[in-house]
Design a protein that fits this description.
single chain, alpha+beta, Aminopeptidase
């Protein structure tokens, strides 16, 4: 079998991060790629997050995985001071691939899970001292792009402009935040159209304001506005390794409904 790389970017991914595998007759057997992201806000203890994807016939998977791990090692050498993780994302029914990664040393200790919780039945909170509670300005393309950039700094997978435009058309759409000196310290995006059920798409709080109840206060304020529209409960997705997200769910007495995806990974550093 033979490894090769494309002559240019592949689906927006730099060519050096993409590998093709073929047999000795040059029949393609699969493709894999690596994506590096720095999640200093979401995973400050392991900010270097290296996503890999293997899409290949069984006979070619080990060779392709080896090439991807070698590329991940190159990234690790570029940032030797950073701790991180190499991971992939699979749906729970992909047992063959889950076993493949397990046999190659990946631990199944992270998952994206769906939770549901009852919205607190209280009015909008008083904002923290010297803060303003307001809707996120989304009147211009520049404002919308800036909002997306702030949200995506705290996400493993980015929210696209098309996705945001779709959510803005839903009856429960709200984008709210706490602001100090005109700068956001926490923001929330909710949406949904199902009777009495909304969706918490995103909630973030800047690192210097965490562990002070600001995130939950903002969520409670949004809940008060949602209840005025007849919404009584909310669904959301969280990562099981993200302690702040899990802590928030526990504080809301949320119930876990299902595993959306499994994220086998290897800690590095």
């Amino acid at each position: 079998m033979r490894l090769s790389q494309p002559n240019g970017p592949y689906q927006g991914i730099p060519k050096e991060d993409v590998f093709f595998v073929a047999d000795d007759r040059y029949v393609q057997l699969g493709v894999g790629f690596v994506i590096l992201s720095m999640q200093t806000e979401m995973y400050p203890e392991r900010p270097m997050q290296i996503y890999i994807q293997v899409d290949a016939q069984p006979s070619a998977r080990n060779l392709l995985l080896g090439a991807l791990l070698a590329r991940a090692e190159q990234y690790r050498a570029m940032y030797p001071q950073l701790r991180g993780r190499i991971y992939t994302q699979l749906v729970p029914t992909q047992w063959e691939m889950i076993n493949f990664y397990s046999h190659n040393g990946f631990a199944n200790n992270d998952a994206e899970e769906e939770y549901i919780f009852t919205l607190p039945d209280i009015k909008v909170n008083t904002p923290p001292m010297s803060c303003q509670f307001a809707s996120v300005p989304l009147q211009t393309p520049e404002q919308t792009q800036a909002f997306l950039a702030r949200l995506n700094a705290y996400r493993m997978t980015p929210i696209t402009m098309d996705y945001l435009m779709l959510q803005m058309q839903q009856p429960y759409f709200m984008a709210l935040g706490y602001y100090r000196g005109g700068q956001p310290i926490a923001e929330i995006l909710v949406s949904g159209s199902r009777p009495d059920t909304g969706g918490l798409v995103m909630l973030y709080c800047r690192s210097e304001y965490r562990r002070s109840g600001i995130g939950k206060s903002l969520l409670t304020s949004a809940a008060g506005l949602l209840r005025e529209r007849g919404v009584t409960q909310c669904v959301t997705l969280v990562f099981s390794r993200n302690e702040p997200q899990i802590g928030l769910m526990k504080s809301l007495a949320a119930s876990r409904r299902r595993i959306v995806s499994i994220l086998p990974g290897i800690d590095i550093g």
